[in-house]
Structure formats: structure tokens, C-alpha cells
UniProtKB/TrEMBL annotation:
This is Glutaredoxin-like protein nrdH. It comes from Lygus hesperus. It comes from the Eukaryota. The gene is nrdH. InterPro entries: Endo/exonu/phosph_ase_sf. Gene3D superfamilies: Endonuclease/exonuclease/phosphatase (3.60.10.10).
Amino acid sequence: LDRTTATSEHCGDICAVESTINGQRTLIVTVYVSPNSTMEDIECFFLTNLLMYTQKASEMFEQIRKKGYGQIPIILSGDINLDLKKPESRQFINFMRHTFELQLKTDPSISTTRGGSCIDAVFTRHVDRIDTANYVSYFSYHKPLLSITSSN
């Protein structure tokens, strides 16, 4: 492990591990966003914790550009507590894409809870191959996501 950070705030929790996988530096992030958080709070939460991994930060700060943080592959997953099936969640998906270049890799039409909502997600940046599916769990309200990536 090259770098590990963990933060807990009123909006949620985030744990990020920067590691070398198959010779490639990769950031693996897991998040929990508290229910009923406002979109403004959610965006601030992600910006506060992941700003150095944006292209904008690389353009503004020479030290960040030299380390290549704006181009490092990212796998981000977790409980977003926004129903991605609903149209209003598009704002969050667009924020992740435009701010961090993160693409949603899970299908928002597939439920991740027993209640039929899709509040768990996987986003990636510069990761060529990743497969994500629901994992069967008999002990949780959530249907956990299982992601597999390969090195080719």
C-alpha cells in the first residue's frame, strides 16, 4: 500500500487506498453517504476528500501534476444513498463524470436493495475492464456488489 486515508464526516465516510496493482498505481475508494444528505453536502464531501485526483487540481498545482494524480485509475464503490433509478440522481452521476472523470459502471435500473432501489454503485476512471454484479446476501437489506477487474 502506498497511501491510505479515511475520513468520517456528518455527510458520510470515505476510505481510500492508493496501491500498485499489476504495476499500475490505482486508487480504490469505498464510500458511505448518510441518508438524506443534500446534493450540496454530497458534492462538498467528495470534493473535500478527492480534490487532488481531479484534472483541475493537476492544472492548478504543479506538485499534483508531477505526481500524476489527475490521471491515476480509480475504482470507487459504496452506498451512495441516492436512488440512482430516479431522474434527480442524474445530477450526482454528472457531477462524478465531469469533476472526477468517473463513469458509472453499475446499471441503475437494477436494484441493490430489497426495497427495489439502486443506492449502491461502482464508478471507475481509466479502468479498462471491470465486471460488476449483485452478490446474493441473506443477511443485509442491501444486495452487495461484487466487482472483478483484470489486468489485460
